[in-house]
Amino acid sequence: MQFVKEGYPFIIIPLVLGLLLFVSGFGVVASMIGILCMLVSLFCLYFFRDPKIDITKGNGLILSPCNGTVLEVSENETEKVIRVFLSVLDVHLQRSPVAGKVVKVEHKLGKFLKAMEPQAHIVNEQNIITIGNENGTYLVKQVAGVLARRCVVWVKSGDILNTGDKIGVIKFSSQVDMHMPRNVNIKVKQGDKVVSGITIFATLMDSSS
Description:
Blueprint: E1 2-3, H1 8-22, H2 28-47, E2 49-50, E3 61-63, E4 68-75, E5 79-86, E6 93-95, E7 100-108, H3 120-123, E8 126-133, E9 136-143, E10 151-153, E11 160-161, E12 166-170, E13 174-181, E14 184-186, E15 193-194, E16 200-204
Antiparallel strand pairs: 1-2, 3-16, 4-5, 4-15, 5-13, 6-12, 7-8, 7-11, 8-9, 9-13, 10-12, 14-16
Helix pairs in contact: 1-2
């Protein structure tokens, strides 16, 4: 099992503090606080896990960029959108849903509403990663929340990605939105559990897969 490097401070600091308090000899209270710190470290170890997976293969596939539960599937005259809620129990790194080139990476300042709030994906702070290929343009939005005050992007404009490549991480629970061209068939619905790099979000309408 690997772990996301951004998680190391959250793992190591409470672990060291907990061990110091536990063996300090300052009494029961210090020992109890030490145990609590070590439990926090263990939780962060679990939270920042980076499990090895087999990326789903196939022509014309658009894969889930994240782990979580589908909040909403919608469409308008220009695109189709899938919004996913990430709980604190979900793996929190994001992967590229398609192969292509990173066209642009944007950071948008905003609020920190709860991820489940209807307006969160509009007004909250977020990173927008735009990926383009011969089939269209795909946007992955990392949306900050009341706990997730930090969204980290690992790619930059001009990078060439394979489907399933790691592109970023959100620290603690939040939301990820996926914007796709209209020429796709959506394969998930509200309430579905999805897994980054494995679950098929959609397929191209002209694909034989």
